[in-house]
Structure formats: structure tokens, C-alpha cells
Amino acid sequence: MRPVGAVLFDLDGTLVDSETHTDEAISAVVARYGVASFALPHSETRGRTWAHVADVIRRQTGIECHTSALADELLEYWTEAAADVTPIPGAADAVRAAATRKLKLGVVSGSPRSVIDSFLAKLGIGDCVDTRARIGGDAVSRSKPDPEGYLLGARALGIEPAETLVFEDSQAGLMAAKAAGMRSVFITCCASDIPGNTRLATASCTHYLTLPDGFWHEIAEGRLELAGRSFK
């Protein structure tokens, strides 16, 4: 039960309920190229960068469009669709509570840094999250499930991976946290493959309102065993 010194949050599906807009963006943009009712499995979209999604789309459909151009098109559609996105229950208060407990905080997302900044501002928690530890998909050379983003976040906060706790909603993100040597909490309320992804995480919770009273204090003190816990 090593004390936690820093918490790194994923963004989409972990702090904000934006993943449905991902599916919408993929279907709508691909339809522009004459491919109707196209969809990708969540393993290829959740926790992934738009460049990865665009590359998979091109390989599966044969669309003649450069990966970067298609990724930009997807991001533009998604950004507009997700403008009034709903927060995950209790997300903003949880971040503030963690900050009050003096835990160092960061966000590691497949979305670009500009999107991270925008959503943190909309949630009213921009002052809680270290600007150096806002790691977007445009800051890494290898996206989740590679651990690069989470390792960059921990390094920016000056915290060892073993003292870092990750909140995630995707298979790719949980695999990245595990590969980085970090503990993780799986947020299930917007997730898919809950049984499979639960096995990848240290602990799970429905959303932040189901975390027990004193959660942030106890993890900071190393007094809460997370392994195998499910907070519902």
C-alpha cells in the first residue's frame, strides 16, 4: 500500500462523457467518402489518438486521404459535437478534492493538448491540474497502449511511476498504465468490456461519486488497499 503522490487522469470517458461523440464523428466523416454506416470496435477508438483512428479507417475502407488530413477532419467534427459534453458524475469535485489533499495532478489523453485545456476550463478545474503534466496525443510519438504518455506525465510531476495512480476508462489506457508500472482505477460508467477491462486494472469504480469517503486522504497516506477493490 505504497502512498500515492500523483494522480493522472485520462480525459474522454474518464473526466467527460465524450466517447459517444467519437463513434458519431467516425460514422459521419467516413460517410462523406461514400462509406455508409461505418463503425470501429471500441478497442480501436477508446484511448486512441485520432491519427491511430484515421490510419485504421484508411486501412479498412481504402479511403484515399492522407492520415493526418483525415485525423484533422475527425477531430474537427468531434470537437464541435462534444462542445457541450457532460462531465462524468463527481469528476470536478474529485479533482478538487485530490488537489486539496496536495496530490500532484495531470491529464494524459489521446486528444490534443488544446482539447485537454478546453475541457479542464469547462469543468472549472484548470487551476488544479499542472500545465506541465497535460500530455495530449500530439505530445507523444507512441499512443496508448504504449506507456509513453503516462511516463511523461509522471516525469513532469517529478513522481515515480510506483507512486502514481491512473484513472482510465479504456483497454488501451489501462494497458498503458500497467506497462508504465502504475496502479489504476477503471471508471466503468461509460466503458465497454467491463469484465475484461476490470482484470487489467488495480481497482474499479462506477464513477467518482462511488469512491468511499476519505479516498484521497487514504491513498495519499498509503492506508487504502486498492488491489481487487470495486467501488459501486
Strand content range: 5-15%
Category from helices, strands and their pairing: alpha/beta
Poorly predicted segments: none
Number of domain modules: 2
Q: Any idea what the CATH superfamily of the largest domain is called?
A: HAD superfamily/HAD-like
What topology emerges from the helices and strands here?
Blueprint: E1 6-9, E2 16-17, H1 19-31, H2 50-61, H3 67-81, E3 86-87, H4 91-100, E4 104-108, H5 113-123, E5 134-135, H6 148-157, E6 164-168, H7 171-179, E7 183-187, H8 194-200, E8 203-205, H9 215-221, E9 230-231
Parallel strand pairs: 1-4, 1-6, 4-5, 6-7, 7-8, 8-9
Antiparallel strand pairs: 2-3
Helix pairs in contact: 1-3, 2-3
Can you describe what's shown?
This protein has helices at 19-31, 50-61, 67-81, 91-100, 113-123, 148-157, 171-179, 194-200, 215-221; strands at 6-9, 16-17, 86-87, 104-108, 134-135, 164-168, 183-187, 203-205, 230-231. Helix content is 41%, strand content 13%. It has two domains: 6-17 and 85-231, HAD superfamily/HAD-like (Rossmann fold), CATH 3.40.50.1000; 19-81. It has 232 residues and is of the alpha/beta class. The model has no long low-confidence stretch (mean pLDDT 95). Strands 5-4-1-6-7-8-9 form a seven-stranded parallel beta sheet, with helices on both faces. It has a two-stranded antiparallel ribbon with strand order 2-3.
Give a nutshell description of this structure.
Helices cover 41% and strands 13% of the residues.
Short descriptors:
13% strand, 232 residues, seven-stranded parallel β-sheet, two-stranded antiparallel sheet, Rossmann fold, alpha/beta, single chain, 9 helices
